[in-house]
C-alpha cells in the first residue's frame, strides 16, 4: 500500500513543470490516448500549479512548489522540487509513518531498445543493482533493506523504468545513499552479466503460460514491424546472449552505451515519503541526487500509429 502511494504520487511528480503532461499509461498511450487527453490533463496540472506557491530556489534546487493541492483530510505535507540537474521531486512528510519509501522513475523503457537487442532496457534495470563504486558489494542494497524491515523492486515498461524501495523510518537516509549511487556510479560488472541474463530468462519463462503476457506480445508482434511498438520488451537468453554472440556483439558494451545515452537526470522523477520535515527531506534528497548527470536527453515521441 505504501509503495502504491509513492508510485501514484510519482506519476504526477512532473506537476512542477507547467508544460508537462502527467501521462496516463493505458494501452498504446504514447500513440493515441495521450494525444486525446493531453489538453484536459495539462489544464488540470496547470490549475494545481497555479494554486501552489511556486518559488525559485537557490543552491541545489532551482524550483520549489509549496502548498500543493490535497484533500482536506490528508494530514501529510507535500512539496515539489526541481533540482539544478533537472530532476523532478515530490517530498511527502508524515511524522506518524511506520515505513519510509522512495521511488525513482526514468522516462525511458523498452520501446528504446536497439532493434537488434530486445530486452536491453529490462536487462539494464537488472544490472543497475549489481553494485556501485561507493558500495561495490552486489548484495549491499538488499542486505541493508532486509535488515531494516524493507524491500525493493523495479520494473521496465514501454516508455519508463521504475525503481522503488521501503525501509524502516530510522534508516531512510542510509538506504537513500545506497540507492542514489545506482544512478551516479553503477559498476555494471562483467561478472554479473551471465547471471542476470539468466534471471531475465527465468522471468520470461514465468511469463510464457500467462495469457495476459501472451496477448500483449501478440499485440506487439502483429503491428507494423518498422514501428518501435514492435518489440519484445522482456528479453531472454536468446536475445541477450545467444544471438548477440553469433553476431560478434558484446552485450555489456551495448548496455553501457544504452545507459550512457538515456539515463539522465532531466528525464527522472523521484518521490519520497519519510517522517522527517519537508526541509530535512529536501536537504537529504538534494544532497544524494545532485551528482546525477544531466545529459539533456529528449525522450522520443511516437506520432504514428503502430497498426
User: Can you write the helix and strand succession as a string?
Assistant: HHEEEEEHHEEHHHHHEH
- The domain count comes to 1
The backbone outline, from C-alpha atoms, is globular
Tell me the CATH topology: Cytochrome Bc1 Complex, Chain A, domain 1
**Low-confidence region ranges:** 12-52
Which range best describes the helical content: under 10%, 10-25%, 25-40%, 40-55%, 55-70% or over 70%? 25-40%
Give the structural class: alpha+beta
Descriptive notes:
This protein is α+β, with helices and mostly antiparallel strands. It has a single domain (2-68, 75-289), classed as Cytochrome Bc1 Complex, Chain A, domain 1 (2-Layer Sandwich), CATH 3.30.830.10. The chain has ten helices and eight strands. It has an eight-stranded mixed sheet with strand order 1-2-3-4-8-5-7-6, sandwiched between helices. β6 (151-156) and β7 form a beta hairpin. α3 (120-127) packs across α6 (193-207), α3 (120-127) packs across α9 (251-262) and α5 runs parallel beside α10. The two termini are 37 Å apart. The model is unreliable at 12-52 (pLDDT under 50).
